[in-house]
Amino acid sequence: MSTSQEVYGIMSLQELIFAGKGDIKADLALTGGKIVNVNTKEILKGDIAVKDGIIVGIGDISDKIGDDTNTIDITGKFASPGLIDGHVHFESSMLTLTHFAMAAIRHGTTGLVIDPHEIGNVLGKGGVELVLSEIEDLQSSVFVMVPSCVPASDLETSGAVMDAPTVSSLLYNDHVIGLGEVMDFPGVLDADPEKLDMIEEALVLGKRVDGHCPGMTGSDLAGYLCAGISSDHESLTYEEAIEKARMGMAVMLREGSAAKCLHE
Predict the structure, then answer these.
(1) Is residue 260 part of a domain?
(2) By the 8 A CB rule, do 119 and 131 touch?
(3) Three-state SS at 14
(4) Where are the alpha helices (DSSP H) in the chain?
(5) How many C-beta atoms lie closer than 10 Å to residue 131's C-beta?
(6) Which residues span the domain enclosing 57?
(7) Are 227 and 195 in contact (CB under 8 A)?
(8) What is the pLDDT of residues 167-219, one digit of tens each?
(9) Element housing 47 (H / E)
(10) Is 105 in the same domain as 205?
(11) Strand partners, 114
(12) Do residues 148 and 34 share a domain?
């Protein structure tokens, strides 16, 4: 059984309660800013009290400020939960995961869902395991989707092949939350046994399966979704994205140098 110190860090559960009540004073107070509340979808003026790295109060925190509280004025700034990048191939940046995470956190992105497909294409399972070992020393929260299509197609010259047994073995890692984008949608629709073995293993473990199906609609989309695939980041038009969303798919929009999804 986990102790409260293991769950909350330095403080015991009792100390955490007392900090919330103001009986134990905060280490840090951020005052004068605007709080982005993602639960209520509001932006509210208020202060934030922090004790041992845990937020113990928002709004009026005057009862939580003591003589030793470090108060920082953030007037004119916004405070929000850390952003999560829901799908990224960090290797495209030509940075190691460590340096990519350091760059991302400076812009408020504290969580990364990575699909190390490119390092898998070059180094196979060993490359993915290198990435998994690097996560241990990072301050950011990094979640891994195991590459499902290495190589991406028969036309590609890759340094490795990751078959169903290889992919399945990686799915058991604690840092892995699912199977990476299933780009081989023809294989899914044709019920290719190798591809279905990967998907079934992920689903049996209670993990997610990411999709990749540009231009797919109608009955093909229904078949693809029936495989247990739950997301897509490759919609080409607004109508396509809405159809996918209405069928229960989590649709990711991209806006950057490589894709412009927001103009529609």
Answers:
(1) no
(2) yes
(3) helix
(4) 4-8, 13-21, 97-105, 117-123, 125-135, 164-170, 185-189, 193-204, 218-226, 238-246
(5) 20
(6) 4-79
(7) no
(8) 999 999 999 999 999 999 999 999 999 999 999 999 999 999 999 999 999 99
(9) strand 47-51
(10) yes
(11) 88, 144
(12) no
Q: Is the domain of 48 the same as that of 174?
A: no
Tell me the pTM. 0.85
Distance, CA of 249 to CA of 247 (rounded, Å) = 6
State which amino acid sits at residue 260.
K
Q: Which residues does residue 58 pair with via DSSP β-bridges, in sequence order?
A: 48
Listed residues 28, 60, 79: the one ending a domain: 79
Instruction: Please state the separation of Cα 220 from the chain's center in Å.
Output: 27
In the block, tokens 């199977």 appear at 179
* Long-range contacts (CB closer than 8 Å, 24 or more residues apart) made by 229-235: 229/182, 229/188, 229/199, 231/86, 231/87, 233/86, 233/87, 233/181, 235/261
In a domain, 262, yes or no: no
